[in-house]
Amino acid sequence: MGGWFLTMSLGSKVAGLMTSSWDKFPDKRIYFFIWFVAGVIGSALIFSRIGWLNRIVRAKTGEK
Fold first, then answer.
1. How confident is the model over 6-63, as pLDDT tens digits?
2. Directed axis angle between helix 28-48 and helix 2-20, to 10°?
3. What does the alpha-carbon distance between residue 17 and residue 6 come to, in Å, rounded to a whole number?
4. What are the φ and ψ backbone dihedral angles of 62, each rounded to 5 degrees?
5. Contact 18, 35 (CB under 8 A)
6. Could you tell me the residue ranges of all domains in the chain?
7. In Å, what is the CA distance from 32 to each residue of 8, 29, 42, 62?
8. How many CA atoms lie within 13 A of 27 on its CB side?
9. DSSP alpha helices (H): ranges in the chain?
10. ∠ CA(42), CA(58), CA(56), 5° rounding?
């Protein structure tokens, strides 16, 4: 449960920082490109950990 609250607070902090910088971007395409790159990096991190997460779930649930 603590991990959920931690990720939500970090995500909210990053969203607040990006929102406060909306007016600083004269070309809004750059703003959305930064969000796109952040999403790609985040998804790459999640997919890189799938094997590790599967091993943990199998060990905790007893599945083979």
1. 989 998 998 898 888 888 889 999 989 988 998 999 899 989 999 898 888 888 888 7
2. 160
3. 17
4. 85, 10
5. yes
6. 25-64
7. 21, 5, 15, 43
8. 4
9. 2-20, 28-48, 50-61
10. 45
